């Protein structure tokens, strides 16, 4: 039997637990145990009593409720789990770094996986059957390590004839680890709708 130091009364802890998950749907049970200083069994029981599903199920529900149908590529070709997708506007995906994504000695993620998550999300945002990356200006801010969760947030900054500009920021927790500016070619030549339309700087 695991002895647990209950830092908060159960009802108060459960209220704060629900709030923590609402503010950060990507938070894991392990992270919640550290936050509330209780065992993982206590966290799981709290979630059950509150009717809050585990992380994987929460992600699945979010995806089913809130993303448009991807047109430019099959959903399984998007690197990471798509959490939110509003075509020609914005999108979010989550990618967990596993053993197959890292260098064996350092346990640091290979850069092309971080890039692929951002790039595929940028392409998936475009509401067109044909969308391809024409150019990318990228910056790796810090190394990403084994078991870290990368949250990529993509925003369509402009859409013009045959070209879209998409900006992607990837975070681990609150820390930005990658930034990319993508120019996406798309087939339609007369598009003017959608996106946060800004005047092109070039």
Estimated helix fraction:
25-40%
Overall body shape: globular
Structural class: alpha+beta
Largest sheet entry:
6 strands, antiparallel
Q: Helical segment tally? A: 5
Total number of beta strands = 6
Main sheet strand line-up = 1-2-4-5-6-3
Query: Which regions have little confidence, pLDDT < 50, spanning 5+ residues?
Result: 1-6, 192-202
Distance between the termini: 65 Å
Summarize the structure.
The protein is of the alpha+beta class and 202 residues long.
Q: Explain this structure to me?
A:
The chain has helices at 10-23, 29-36, 40-50, 55-66, 111-124, and strands spanning 81-86, 90-96, 131-140, 149-160, 163-172, 175-186. The longest helix is centred in the first third of the chain and has 14 residues, at 10-23. α1 (10-23) packs across α3. Mean pLDDT is 85; it is low at 1-6 and 192-202. The protein has 5 helices and 6 strands; from the N terminus they run ααααββαββββ. The chain has 202 residues and is an alpha+beta fold. It is globular. Helices cover 29% and strands 28% of the residues. The protein has a 6-stranded antiparallel beta sheet.
């Amino acid at each position: 039997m695991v002895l647990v130091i209950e830092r908060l009364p159960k009802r108060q802890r459960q209220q704060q637990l629900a709030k923590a998950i609402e503010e950060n749907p990507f938070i894991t049970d392990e992270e919640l145990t550290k936050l509330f200083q209780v065992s993982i069994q206590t966290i799981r029981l709290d979630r059950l009593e509150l009717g809050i599903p585990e992380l994987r199920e929460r992600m699945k529900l979010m995806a089913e409720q809130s993303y448009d149908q991807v047109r430019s590529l099959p959903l399984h070709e998007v690197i990471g789990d798509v959490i939110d997708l509003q075509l020609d506007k914005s999108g979010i995906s989550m990618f967990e770094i596993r053993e197959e994504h890292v260098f064996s000695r350092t346990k640091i993620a290979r850069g092309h996986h971080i890039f692929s998550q951002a790039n595929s999300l940028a392409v998936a945002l475009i509401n067109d059957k044909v969308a391809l990356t024409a150019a990318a200006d990228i910056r790796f801010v810090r190394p990403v390590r084994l078991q870290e969760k990368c949250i990529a947030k993509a925003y369509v900054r402009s859409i013009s004839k045959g070209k879209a500009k998409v900006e992607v920021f990837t975070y681990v927790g609150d820390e930005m680890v990658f930034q990319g500016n993508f120019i996406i070619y798309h087939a339609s030549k007369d598009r003017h709708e959608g996106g946060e339309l800004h005047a092109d700087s070039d």
